[in-house]
Specification:
This is Glycerol uptake operon antiterminator. The chain is an alpha/beta fold. The chain has helices spanning 6-12, 22-29, 46-55, 75-83, 94-102, 116-129, 142-151, 165-174, 184-187, and strands at 15-19, 35-38, 59-63, 88-91, 106-112, 133-137, 156-159, 178-181. It is 43% helix and 20% strand.
Length: 189
């Protein structure tokens, strides 16, 4: 893991590439994106995928909720720490995020904001997880971004459905510290 705090890295590199397949992996290796959210992989190929990114100088956070062949248990975080060169994890589960922090990994707590109940649950969950950052999905809701930024004490990443320049600037203007997108055009911003 890089010794630089994740919020500082996001200030320096506010566009995060969300990589969901092999084509995206190849594309991100040709891009200038330094931070990568890895949204795919299996128990068998994860170490090699992470190694390709690390060998190219990327900071890699693995979405442990999307890995094939793993159960949703803390042992997955330990596997990522001990068997890969990943810098951190993403998860929608507070206990997974907290486990990553305890193991010295960067930890991003993901939230799918679909209604007022999921919004009200966000701040208490962040306090439990002790996340470095929060990612909200969809990230194309400037009004909601302002609410969340006011409720939490960690940087916010706007992810999901951030499709173009207008979405990027609206999210950043609303208080997001960074943008995570699988849209390769956004990676070039």
């Amino acid at each position: 893991m890089d010794a630089t705090p994740l919020p500082t890295l996001l200030e320096e590199h506010p566009v995060v590439a969300s990589v969901k397949d092999e084509d995206d992996l190849n594309a991100v290796l040709r891009s200038d994106c330094r931070i990568v959210f890895l949204l795919y992989g299996t128990v068998l190929d994860l170490p090699a995928i992470v190694r390709r990114l690390k060998d190219d100088g990327r900071i890699v956070l693995v979405n442990v909720d999307l890995l094939e062949g793993f159960a949703g248990k803390e042992i997955v975080v330990r596997y990522v720490r001990e068997r890969t060169a990943a810098d951190g994890i993403l998860s929608s589960k507070a206990f997974m995020v907290r486990a990553a922090r305890e193991l010295g990994l960067y930890a991003v707590h993901r939230f799918f904001l679909i209604d007022s109940m999921s919004y009200r649950n966000l701040a208490p969950q962040v306090r439990m997880s002790k996340a470095d950052c929060v990612e909200i999905l969809p990230g194309c809701m400037p009004r909601v971004i302002t609410w969340v930024v006011a409720d939490i004490d960690v940087p916010l990443i706007a992810g999901g459905l951030v499709c173009d320049r207008d979405d990027v600037f609206a999210a950043l203007k609303a208080g997001a510290s960074a943008i995570a997108s699988s849209n390769r055009e956004v990676w070039q911003m």
